[in-house]
Amino acid sequence: MNLSVRLADSWSINFDRKGFEDPSIILCDMPLKREKSRTLRGLRKREPSARAVEVPANQLSAEERTAVIVEELGNVQIQTKEPEFGNFLRSVILALNRGLQTSKDVAPIVGSLHRSFLERGRSELRAQIKYAYYGYLANQRFTKTNLEDQAKLADLRYPAEWYPATREIQRTIHLHVGPTNSGKTYHALQRLEQAESGVYAGPLRLLAHEVYTRLNARGKPCHLVTGDERHMIEGDVSMRSCTVEMVPITEDVDVAVIDEIQMIGHEERGWAWTQAVMGLKAKELHLCGEERTVPLIKELAAAMGDDLLIHHYKRLSPLKTMSTSLRGDLDNLRKGDCVIAFSKVSIHRMKEDIERTTGKRVAVIYGSLPPEIRAQQAALFNDQNNDYDILVASDAIGMGLNL
Asked: Between 205-217 and 184-194, two packed helices, what is the crossing angle to 10 degrees?
């Protein structure tokens, strides 16, 4: 009995049935020959039965699943004419015929194909075949030393060793922790202003822009670098304000301030805080954030060999919940009040309602406003000598915007 397996580029591999029964046959010497026919026959049947096509994979026998897998091996669309694909097919089909009692290199591939078919059906099986082939190629083309080197590069168990140049510096970490409006970031920025060189890193463009404006206004030339914009000051500038993803970990600075350090645990952006904490080449590293970060920063500082000083702060003004609501009456809003909304449309609608109902001017702040406009709106609200008495904003103001 012959078994013909079709490849996507119209090559067919033909095996004699004896080749599967006699392991002494050298599979790599089996000939490839071009055929016009594109037939595929199962291991024991000429093609999978109608049952194998219609019934869920978990209800098929092992032999029926194997026949389907062999069929998909022949149909896989891999754009290659390399002989390695023929070798891959021979090895996998031999292993399928013999069960999992085969070489340690091919057995995981066979197991993964069966699992993919059982769990998610044919579509996942096709994707797994391609993935398995690429893994097979990597194992064939890379030496043992290459694979060991790749394993070392992928080993993320020892993060303290990721930045060897930074580990050569004896850093002092100042951890400023406390609630909102407690002065923790203020004290860190005071130290930044006193330094000859430094960097500020925050979670929002708005905060980076605020620090950039503050430093330049106080005679400390400072660059602004975010994902969307760059304002580079001419001349010899040793200060930089940026979003945390743009931190220059290769530059030596005297003082670095990393704001909202609790975001080191953020599922999508936490890597940037981790990189900044572990990689910044700063003599003094000031971290500002919530009290819950203390245990983690203690462990990181110990692992990196850095000195750690913890500064605790209390809220400067009391935070109280009103005993009664506005009862839906916008006339109850007073000068200095802020109304929070959660979409751009609702912010502008609320602004119009307040101005129409109360006659007061309203400033607005939300994340997608250009930084210059956001800073201007914040300044209008903060200035007590104009008629912008009320602010309507998104929850972006919860990230330390000074109002």
From this structure: 50
Query: At 391, which helix (H) or strand (E)?
Result: strand 388-393
Q: Give the bridge partners for 361, in sequence order.
A: 388
Q: Express each pLDDT in 27-42 by its tens digit.
A: 333 333 333 333 333 3
Phi then psi for residue 383, to 5 deg, are: -75, 115
The owner of tokens 């200095």 is: 336
Confidence (pLDDT) at 114: 79
Predicted local confidence at residue 110, as pLDDT? 78
* Cβ-based neighbours of 338, under 8 Å, separated by 6 or more: 390, 391, 392, 393, 397, 403
- Tell me, yes or no, if the pTM score tops 0.90: no
How far apart are alpha carbons 140 and 257 in whole angstroms? Answer: 48
Strand order in the sheet with 239-243: 230-231, 222-225, 239-243, 198-202, 252-258, 281-289, 172-177, 307-312
Mark residue 247 as left, alpha or beta (left: phi above 0; alpha: psi -120 to 50; beta: remaining). beta
**Cα–Cα distance for residue pair 134/85, rounded to 1 Å:** 10
Per-10-residue mean pLDDT for the chain, 403 residues long?
35 37 31 34 42 66 79 63 70 69 66 80 78 77 83 85 93 95 93 96 89 93 92 92 95 96 94 96 97 96 96 88 85 90 92 92 87 82 88 78 61
Q: Cα(112)–Cα(107) distance, rounded to whole angstroms?
A: 9
Give strand pairing partners of 230.
Answer: 225
Nearest to 239 by CA among 251, 250, 227: 251
Backbone angles phi, psi at 275, to 5 degrees: -60, -45
**What is d(CA 287, CA 314) in angstroms, rounded to the nearest whole number?**
16
Q: Which residues contact 82 (CB under 8 A, 6 or more apart)?
A: none
- CA-wise closest residue to 205 among 341, 340, 367, 365: 367
